[in-house]
Amino acid sequence: MTDRYAVIGNPISHSKSPLIHAMFAAQTGQDISYEAIEAPLDGFAATITRLRTTGYRGCNVTVPFKFEAFKLATELSERALSAQAVNTLLLRDDSIVGDNTDGLGLGRDIQENLQTRLDAKRVLLLGAGGAAYGVVLPLLQTGASMTVVNRTTAKADELARHFAAHGHIATHSFDSLAGQQFDIVINATSSGLSNELPPLPETIFAPDALAYDMMYGRETPFMAFARERGARVADGLGMLVEQAAEAFFIWRGVRPDTHAVLSRLRTA
Ligand code: NDP
Question: Which of 92, 159, 184, 247 is the residue whose CA sits 20 to 30 A from 135?
Fold first, then answer.
């Protein structure tokens, strides 16, 4: 019988996860189905209950449900515990196992696909939501020097406190970034979804900087802003494929070839 999986978010119609998992399944010969499900904003837990009772084996979780997924899980991986956010659920009869593959996905995309070293680089992370929490620890572990800025400054401070045992994280408001430069600027806000630009200073990008937007599928105002100021620009498609591959491995025990899938998506 075909094993069923899904990605849950709100909104979700833009998601490329069903296509990616279909490509992984075809490549590895796994018999699975994978669909996109929009949960009502107040209906995440009810959606998971429905999936469990109808035989789904796992799901990915995206905006804005990653913190709720963390709370709902009955078992957590170390990655999920450190992130306090969950993007991958393994649905078992007697348990819901939460994991977080976002950080690993971002690290693989920047270091392997984009051939950009993170160690000793000045990294600015925009945002302090689920996506940001998911990537902080793997970034700190590379030896990068980390700064976090968030529209709601208190949340950036909370994030820095949460990870303090793993390394120092400087925090800023967007206003207090003036005069600073970074080698890698990662947009982990959802500003692209509403076509908005986080209020960054004009001179934020160091020479040869990489501007990385976790969003994918179209040029965001952040990507356009960075391109106009001479930065190298990447969207989050590579991260999406890499984090999906790790989720696929958790569910199926098989590692797909991400390079083949990513290049097919890029040329499509
Ligand atoms: P959350 O809803 O948990 O957090 C949203 C964050 O964005 C908060 O820090 C919020 O700030 C900030 N924000 C929202 N609008 C603006 C704005 N106009 N200007 C500045 N900051 C803003 O979302 P997630 O963290 O889960 O997801 C964030 C993004 O990352 C999404 O676009 C998602 O698609 C993408 N993503 C991509 C992945 C990939 O594989 N490529 C994986 C994971 C996420 P405040 O606290 O002030 O509200």
Answer: 92
Please check the confidence at residue 10 and state whether its pLDDT lies above 90: yes
Residue nearest to atom 6 of ligand 1 (CA): 189
How confident is the model at residue 242, as a pLDDT?
Answer: 98
Separation of CA 205 and ligand 1 centre (Å): 21
> Is 218 found in the same domain as 112?
yes
pLDDT of residue 215: 93
3-state SS string for 138-180:
HHHHCCCEEEEECCCHHHHHHHHHHCHHHCCEEEECCHHHCCC
Identify which of 190, 212, 240, 262 to mutate to test ligand 1's pocket (most ligand atoms within 8 A of the CB).
190
Flag whether pLDDT at 86 surpasses 90.
Answer: yes
Q: What pLDDT is attached to residue 130?
A: 82
**C-beta 214 within 6 A of ligand 1:** yes
Q: How many domains does the structure of the chain reveal?
A: 2
Structural domain boundaries, residue 42? 3-100+239-267
Burial profile 2-39: b = 16 or more Cβ within 10 angstroms, e = fewer: ebbbbbbbbebeebbbbbbbebbbeeeebebebbbbeb
Q: Is the CB of 236 under 6 A from ligand 1?
A: yes
Q: If pLDDT is split at 50, 70 and 90, which confidence band does 268 have?
A: confident
* Mean pLDDT computed over 226-249: 98
Report the length, in residues, of the chain.
268
